[in-house]
Amino acid sequence: MNTTKSAAFWAMVLILVAGVGIRCVGLEWGLPSKTFSFTTYHPDEAFVFQTLENMKKTRTLHPLEIGLHYGTLHFYLSGVILLAAKIAGLVQLGSREFLMANLGQVDRMYMILRLFSVFCGAVSVWLVYAIGRRIYNDRTAVWAAFFMAFSAAAVDVGHYAKVDALLVPLTLLLIYFSILLLDEPSRKNLWICGVLAGLLASTRYN
After folding, report:
1. Cα–Cα distance measured from residue 139 to residue 9, given in angstroms and rounded to the nearest whole number
2. DSSP string, the chain
3. Span 180-185, mean pLDDT?
4. Taken in order 50, 54, 57, 62, is the CA torsion positive or negative?
5. Who has the most CB within 10 Å: 79, 96, 106, 119?
6. Contact of 128 with 148, CB cutoff 8 Å
7. pTM attached to this predicted model
8. pLDDT tens column, 124-161
9. What angle do helix axes 46-58 and 73-87 make, rounded to 10 degrees?
């Protein structure tokens, strides 16, 4: 590893740590135990749980009206993440009555999905670096990642259990493989771009 690449590597480590850190500041803001309800101070976050509740009631993967206003992939992933958290003993799921009497469990559900948003933010920072390095150089890539890490809009998205958190890394991943497809045309890269485009479309419709 030459000096330039070594400097870029350590710069990215610091940027990623700082980016994750700034997204974790205030992550407990407005949780249900503070609002005394199933919602947080951010009105859109509850849509995830309302959609999952609808699917549980109908025993189908149909998200009904709320889900169809956004896209289904984020809701499905959220369900899988919460189920995995339940299996791991990180959260207890139950009826509305149980959860209303145990809002701390609802806090945990929100925090788990908010942490997933933080993870998506970190991946986005790395993907901006990868794209910058692919089309320019290490120095440009590091600066691009720096601005992505501390962009006000990107940091804000990384704080909430919303569909937008997943939208950003999927968009960047599609851009990266689209560039790769132009540079190295192949059936494999074409398939990857097609799959990513489909996942991106199913994440947010509008």
Report:
1. 11
2. --HHHHHHHHHHHHHHHHHHHHHHTTTTTT-HHHHTSS--SSTTTHHHHHHHHHHHHHTSS--HHHHHHH-SHHHHHHHHHHHHHHHTTS-----HHHHHH-HHHHHHHHHHHHHHHHHHHHHHHHHHHHHHHHHS-HHHHHHHHHHHHH-HHHHHHTTSSSTHHHHHHHHHHHHHHHHHHHHS--HHHHHHHHHHHHHHHHH---
3. 93
4. negative
5. 106
6. yes
7. 0.91
8. 999 999 999 999 999 999 999 999 999 999 999 999 99
9. 80
Dihedral angle over CA of 149, 151, 153, 157, nearest 10 = 10
Helix axes 138-150, 103-135, angle to 10 degrees: 160
Q: In whole angstroms, what is the distance from residue 204 CA to residue 163 CA?
A: 7
Distance, CA of 17 to CA of 11 (rounded, Å): 10
Please answer whether residues 155 and 22 qualify as being in contact, where contact means their C-beta atoms are separated by less than 8 angstroms. yes
Residue 56 CB neighbours (<10 A):
11
- Buried b or exposed e, range 69-83, using 16+ CB within 10 angstroms: ebbbbbbbbbbebbe
- Write down how long the chain is: 206
Structure tokens at 81: 């993440």
